[in-house]
From TrEMBL:
Molecular function (Gene Ontology), one example: hydrolase activity
InterPro entries according to UniProt: Cell_wall_metabolism_enzyme, Dup_hybrid_motif, M23ase_b-sheet_dom
Span of domain M23ase beta-sheet core: 52-118, 138-167
Domain of life: Bacteria
Statement: the UniProt record of this protein carries the keyword Hydrolase: yes
Enzyme Commission number(s) of this protein: 3.4.24.-
One Pfam family, short name: Peptidase_M23
Protein name according to UniProt: M23 family metallopeptidase
């Protein structure tokens, strides 16, 4: 397709679908799920680690145990109790085809709390995922369903609130449903970046452009680009009226007045949410904690309901004329910011070369070193990369293999890949059962008990970094915060868990021979005293059995009085 000045736009191979009209969703059907004004700590579509934020984070004034109420009539269709993720969560299905989700709760309403507790004791299992029929727990709009909290993967007291399509389970931007959250502030732009799209967006990487405010708009000096094929990305936030840095709802990129790319975050499914890693400059996000969003589509991104332009945003320059660029950013309320600038291709710029040893999107690949092998699926990468895989000597006494270096943790992987590592010595059958694969991502670690495949250990991961086989013969343990036989005056018992390698994957507590309901709170185990251990009931024996990732089992006994 020819444009002015012989400018060519490369058309994207897939066309997204977006629902941009807010009136497609029922307005004012759902009420505020809190009894205090709605204030956002995070909005729908905000950038998170390996996913889009899938709902609204509502502030609870740094408090816990505020009443959480049903946003509309319906019935409790599901609850979850889990260590990370949502923590304690309630799902309410409504007759209009939507389901609302309320997460990080402390307690459910009395009848539901009793049901869940009874189920936990019956199953002898704290974590639960229970579905209900419409007749079991019907609720009315405004009815208290829980108390707010800080459970699961929460960094502070708040309520996570979602609206989902009941049939598809897609999460829909709750701000499209007409909630009254005043907002008169337009998004703020703090950075513009361009990429040489002859190569991967990872190499050579982003070229920063200084942005300055010009009246009510933003601008830059004329951008001299050194490639005939480029794309843009923008660093911007939506402050709303509440001080928190929220994510951008909608963006458009225009070249010489023509729309060449746009995104709008109206709905995302949990199956697709990891594609966020291909919508941002992942290197800058993981390394520098900067949220920079691409105004183009990477070839390995297959995210529905996001790009509505039908084009991939890559600009092909066939001349050295000056071309105009306009970037328009909007929030749900229509507050708008514009960045206007100009670009020119410098034909005399030095040529850049890139290695042809690539892992490419939509192509599976197996890569080997002497003692290791990685198998990447066709969906593994969003953009081409010069994949680097090497071996280093073992780093400690527990290591029983070389350390395998896989690229860098600053490059994303979309799905799980298979990694096989060969030990550097023969192992007995007993030792083989104690082998784990330890993966180091730089700022955190993960350990998996892999399975044996011939003379190698095999495991699956979905991030790059360094991996090594360890022989783990350490016992997991818990430590009590009281002396043996002590009289406990508090309302809880707390045990701190320790596993030198990996995690405690199984925990069982028995009080005087009967299972006791301990909750998992990060690395601790907490029991809130109930009728299973009344006051004045004498000396109790608490037997705790833990199992770690390698399968090592430890049983400990503690005594106390109540």
């Amino acid at each position: 397709m020819k444009l002015f000045h012989k400018l060519t736009i490369i058309v994207c191979s897939f066309i997204g679908i977006v629902i941009s009209a807010q009136n497609n969703y029922p307005q004012n059907y759902f009420r505020n799920p809190l009894n205090i004004p709605m204030q956002l700590a995070a909005n729908f579509g905000a950038v998170r680690s390996n996913h889009f934020h899938m709902g609204l984070d509502l502030r609870t004034n740094s408090q816990e145990n505020l009443p959480v109420v049903a946003a509309a009539d319906g019935y409790v269709s599901r609850i979850k109790v889990e260590r990370y993720g949502f923590g304690n969560a309630v799902y309410i299905t409504h007759p209009n085809g939507y389901t609302t989700v309320y997460a990080h709760l402390n307690k459910y309403f009395p009848g539901l709390e009793d049901y869940v507790k009874e189920r936990q004791y019956k199953d002898e299992k704290w974590e639960q995922d229970i579905n209900f029929s419409p007749s079991q727990f019907p609720v009315t709009k405004g009815q208290t369903i829980a108390l707010s909290g800080n459970t699961g993967g929460s960094a502070g007291p708040h309520l996570h609130f979602e609206i989902r399509d009941t049939k598809t389970e897609e999460c829909i931007n709750p701000l499209l449903f007409g909630f009254n959250i005043p907002d008169r502030m337009a998004p703020a732009v703090s950075g513009l970046y361009w990429y040489d799209r002859r190569f991967s967006t990872y190499e050579p990487g982003a070229n920063g452009v200084a942005v300055k405010k010009a009246g009510s708009a933003y601008t830059t000096d004329i951008i001299q680009v050194t490639s005939p094929e480029i794309s843009f990305a923008v660093k911007a936030t939506d402050k709303a009226n509440q001080g928190f840095s929220l994510g951008i709802y909608q963006a458009e990129l225009l070249l010489d007045g023509r729309l060449i790319y746009s995104f709008s975050i109206d709905k995302v499914s949990y199956d697709d949410t990891r594609y966020q890693n291909g919508c941002i400059d992942y290197i800058r996000f993981s390394r520098d904690k900067m949220s920079i969003q691409h105004l183009s589509a990477l070839p390995g991104v297959k995210l529905k309901n996001y790009n509505s332009s039908g084009q991939n945003g890559i600009i092909h320059l066939e001349d050295d004329s000056i071309h105009s660029i306009e970037i328009i950013l909007k929030d749900v309320n229509g507050n708008t910011s514009k960045l206007v600038t100009k670009i020119r291709y410098d034909r005399n710029s030095p040529q850049v070369t890139s290695s042809d040893k690539l892992v490419k999107p939509n192509e599976g690949k197996i890569i080997r070193t002497e003692n290791a092998e990685i198998a990447l699926s066709k969906n593994a990468v969003y953009d081409a990369m010069n994949f680097k895989m090497s071996e280093n000597p073992a780093f400690n006494a527990q290591s029983i293999s070389n350390t395998i270096v896989l690229q860098t943790s600053y490059i994303p992987v979309h799905d799980k890949y298979t990694l096989k590592i060969k030990p550097n010595r023969k192992l007995s059958s007993e030792e083989k059962n104690k082998v784990v694969m330890l993966f180091d991502y730089g700022n955190d670690r993960d350990a998996v008990k892999g399975k044996w495949s011939g003379d190698r250990v095999e495991a699956e991961f979905n991030r790059f970094g360094t991996a090594v086989l360890l022989l783990d013969e350490n016992l997991p343990s818990v430590s009590a915060g009281w002396k043996e036989g002590a009289l406990i005056g508090s309302s809880t018992l707390r045990l701190k868990g320790t596993a030198k390698v990996g995690d405690i994957v199984s925990f069982r507590a028995e009080l005087d021979g009967k299972w006791l309901r301990f909750a998992r709170v990060k690395d601790d185990f907490v029991y809130v005293f109930d009728e299973k251990c009344p006051k004045g009931s004498g000396l109790h024996t608490l037997k705790v059995t833990t199992i770690n990732t390698a399968g090592n089992t430890n049983t400990q006994t503690f005594t106390f009085q109540r």
